[in-house]
Design a protein that fits this description.
248 residues; nine-stranded mixed sheet; alpha+beta
Length: 248
């Protein structure tokens, strides 16, 4: 073999911006995520510190597949707010005390690490997730709202999806709105704590798809048993949607 037959391979590593946050505030969210994965038989191999966000988790699924998860997690609640509907729930997108900037939501183009963008209601034991790509970048202090009826459906059924209209920003001073905001109707997905692994599977399959296709896949996941091994759910869902496994 001559020197001309040898070259140096290169690959772009996936990276993300890390924000300093309050460990006291974020530790319960991180514990919720860890417990959710362990409920489904996953083994946690790595989990980042609670004072840094987003959370990075590496886990082995019951079938042995190793998966990386990048979790942009925020506290969801129904605290009464002046001039807001009494049946409104929400999670506010913010890291730290500076609310003038934006959060750059990182999504791995190679699909090795899966990003979730999620509000967690610790009191009710449920989560509500939005499409990470449709929320990149995310202005600090913006809220994602949903209704009591959505939470009731999550608690009753374990998993559900619904549409949410997006509205133009009230201010044009933030960098996020110097870009072209995605004003399509978005699909929110909610689940009880034990369904969080299914959200990871949804994001692996639905990354980059339009909201209608995302809704279809979320509805298919609702029909599948939450107690089934994650790998079997993934392959069954791919078969039903006629998606090749190598596509995710």
């Amino acid at each position: 073999m001559t020197g001309d037959d040898v070259s140096i391979g290169e690959a772009s590593a996936f990276s993300w911006k890390v924000y300093s946050v309050s460990a006291h505030d974020k530790a319960p969210l991180l514990a919720f995520i860890r417990e959710a994965f362990e409920m489904r038989g996953c083994v946690i191999r790595h989990i980042s510190a609670a004072n840094r966000a987003p959370f990075h988790i590496v886990l082995d699924m019951p079938g042995g597949e190793r998966v990386g998860v990048l979790a942009y997690a925020f506290l969801a609640n129904s605290r009464p707010t002046r001039n807001r509907p009494p049946d409104e729930h929400r999670f506010q997108i913010k890291y730290g005390g500076d609310l003038s900037g934006v959060i750059d939501v990182a999504v791995d183009p190679f699909g090795v690490t899966t990003t979730i963008f999620v509000g967690i209601d610790l009191e009710r034991g449920v989560f509500v997730a939005a499409d990470p790509l449709m929320n990149n970048p995310s202005p600090m202090s913006r809220s994602v709202e949903f209704k009591t009826e959505n939470v009731d459906r999550i608690l009753a059924n374990g998993w559900c999806a619904w549409e949410r209209d997006r509205h133009e920003a009230r201010t044009m001073t933030r960098r996020a709105f110097e870009l072209l905001p995605d004003m399509r109707t978005e699909v929110l997905v909610g689940g009880r704590q034990e369904r969080l692994l299914d959200l990871v599977l949804l994001e692996r399959i639905a990354r980059g798809l339009d909201p209608g296709e995302r809704h279809l896949i979320a509805d298919k996941l609702r029909e599948l048993p939450s107690e089934a091994p994650a790998g079997k759910i993934s392959h069954k869902l791919l078969d039903e949607l006629s998606i090749a496994p190598e596509a995710v």
